[in-house]
């Protein structure tokens, strides 16, 4: 944690973690502004939290696999687990988490999340649901203490528009919001198990944990993008491990046949194709075009898309587990649960990825002929995606008595999986179509950026948020500087400020603008 101004009572400039900073470092801050503190976007503690979160998601996937469908308790528990991860990610991308207290809080949150995930099989009217609500209450109380500490350290605030003022407002809002959330979960824990109000309490608790994107103060944009990507890739990895785990007991007693090798290859290949379709917004999308930095409505829809992507990736993994069991057990007919979960999960995953892509701003050239080529590429991708989603959704809702081409696609497990893999290969090839056109027309990326300036997309017709675009401009300059020196570090997206108490650091990306937070009005912080 820290301040944008040097504390006159701190002789060492407040840059040290224990009050013993170097005078020359303080001089650098005083003369040149905030100093750069490059760090890894995902720390080892964050990675451990990601593993625990994906384990909780896998427990929800096991419940989906056991029930053969997705119901409201499954969606609610998944949302609670995801919001626990979001709380931790929101804090770690804004404040320093290298001190012992932050490590302890992360460890306690991991323990609580693991304990809550053991009850993922429960419904709303059970003791397991009470334990999950108690877990959510405990994590909310942890963040009340964390942000109350920030509130206390920045209680004096500063002039409106300063970094200290923005941090104080953010800490006050998050402390109050988490306090209300913890009270809501406590009320739910004391309700009788057969109370009809329990689902309503869970809904209120989930809503209280929602935040308007980047309302008071921004986070470390690059680190937040990396965290989302790492969580998704880990979930894909857990799905692969689960498929192999389902197949292992069969292979312990019988040698795998070529058909079984082919089936496992297609399952893993399908998840790899989904990985290629995933939008890696860490470096592939300019900050100026990112949904989170265009306007808050686009940012909120972006978070909804990411949540649905994680949910339906878990659904797809559960369906692949059931499909693997059916195939290795040589079932006489394709199980309906496996078919519904695989086809429906794949359709929803593809739709979620396309939805996330549509939240970003695309760029087309000013040249009329080149513009038509890019429009043709974009609409080809869109029509192909909608077509694949429609066909696989029809496969999901088809009946055993149906006949025709859909029935031929689902003759058996390996046939259906091969069809879905072919669809994914086509979508991956089409997703590179605009890049192929760009390489054909322009000799390098710099020339492409010079001519591809006209905004295009759903949100291009809406008014952008000026403070967010100012932050994006600062990040774009930082990105250009990093590319110029070919540095893999975060550069100026992570800033360090001298602390009013002589210890700690605060990180945020908006500090590139010289601490101008005056335009960051609104309610809520980032999810």
Distance between the termini: 20 Å
Mean pLDDT: 76
Percent range of helical residues: 55-70%
Radius of gyration: 25 Å
In short:
By secondary structure, the chain is an all-alpha fold.
Structure notes:
The protein is mainly alpha-helical and 527 residues long. Helices cover 64% and strands 2% of the residues. The protein has 17 helices and four strands. Strands 1-4 form a two-stranded antiparallel sheet. Strands 2-3 form a two-stranded antiparallel sheet. The longest helix is centred in the middle third of the chain and has 33 residues, at 296-328. It is globular and about 70 Å long. The two termini are 20 Å apart.
Secondary-structure blueprint:
Elements: H1 23-32, E1 35-36, H2 44-67, H3 72-92, H4 100-117, H5 127-153, H6 163-190, H7 198-208, H8 221-251, H9 258-277, H10 296-328, H11 336-359, E2 362-365, H12 368-397, H13 405-409, H14 413-431, H15 433-441, H16 445-451, E3 452-456, H17 466-485, E4 495-496
Antiparallel strand pairs: 1-4, 2-3
Protein traits:
two-stranded antiparallel sheet; 527 residues; disordered N terminus; 17 helices; two-stranded antiparallel ribbon; mainly alpha; disordered C terminus; 64% helix
């Amino acid at each position: 944690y820290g301040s944008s101004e040097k504390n006159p009572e701190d002789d060492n400039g407040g840059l040290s973690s224990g009050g013993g900073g170097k005078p020359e470092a303080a001089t650098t801050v005083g003369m040149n502004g905030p100093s750069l503190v490059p760090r890894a976007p995902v720390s080892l503690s964050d990675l451990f939290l990601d593993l625990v979160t994906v384990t909780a998601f896998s427990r929800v996937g096991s419940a989906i696999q056991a029930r053969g469908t997705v119901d409201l308790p499954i969606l609610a528990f998944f949302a609670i687990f995801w919001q626990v991860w979001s709380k931790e990610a929101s804090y770690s991308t804004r404040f320093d988490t290298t001190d012992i207290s932050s490590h302890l809080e992360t460890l306690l949150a991991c323990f609580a999340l693991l304990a809550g995930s053991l009850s993922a099989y429960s419904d709303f009217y059970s003791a397991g649901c009470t334990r999950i609500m108690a877990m959510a209450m405990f994590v909310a109380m942890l963040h009340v203490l964390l942000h109350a500490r920030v509130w206390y350290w920045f209680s004096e605030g500063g002039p409106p528009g300063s970094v200290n003022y923005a941090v104080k407002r953010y800490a006050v809002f998050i402390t109050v919001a988490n306090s209300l959330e913890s009270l809501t979960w406590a009320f739910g824990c004391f309700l009788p198990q057969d109370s009809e109000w329990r689902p309503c309490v869970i809904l209120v608790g989930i809503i209280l944990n929602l935040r308007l994107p980047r309302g008071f103060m921004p986070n470390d944009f690059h680190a937040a993008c990396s965290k989302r990507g790492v969580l998704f890739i880990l979930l894909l990895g857990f799905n692969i491990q689960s498929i192999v785990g389902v197949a292992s007991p069969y292979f312990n007693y019988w040698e795998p046949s070529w058909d079984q090798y082919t089936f496992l290859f297609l399952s893993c290949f399908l998840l790899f194709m989904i990985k290629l379709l995933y939008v890696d917004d860490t470096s592939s999308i300019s900050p100026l075009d990112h949904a989170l930095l265009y306007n808050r409505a686009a940012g909120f829809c972006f978070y909804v898309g990411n949540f649905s992507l994680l949910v339906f990736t878990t659904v797809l993994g559960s369906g692949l587990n059931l499909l693997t069991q059916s195939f290795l057990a040589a079932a006489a007919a394709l199980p309906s649960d496996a078919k519904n979960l695989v086809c429906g999960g794949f359709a929803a995953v593809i739709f979620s990825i396309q939805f996330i892509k549509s939240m970003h701003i695309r760029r087309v050239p000013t040249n009329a002929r080149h513009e038509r080529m890019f429009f043709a590429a974009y609409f080809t991708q869109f029509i192909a995606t909608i077509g694949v989603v429609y066909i696989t959704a029809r496969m999901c809702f088809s009946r055993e008595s149906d006949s025709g081409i859909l029935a031929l696609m689902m003759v058996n497990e390996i046939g259906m999986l091969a069809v879905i893999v072919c669809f994914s290969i086509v979508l991956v090839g089409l997703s590179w179509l605009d890049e192929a056109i760009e390489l054909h027309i322009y000799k390098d990326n710099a020339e492409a950026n010079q001519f591809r300036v006209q905004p295009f997309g759903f949100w291009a017709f809406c008014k952008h948020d000026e403070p967010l675009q100012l932050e994006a401009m600062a990040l774009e300059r930082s990105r250009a500087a990093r590319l110029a020196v070919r540095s893999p570090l975060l550069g100026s997206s992570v800033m360090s400020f001298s602390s009013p108490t002589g210890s700690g650091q605060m990180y945020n990306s908006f500090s590139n603008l010289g601490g101008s937070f005056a335009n960051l009005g609104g309610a809520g912080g980032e999810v």
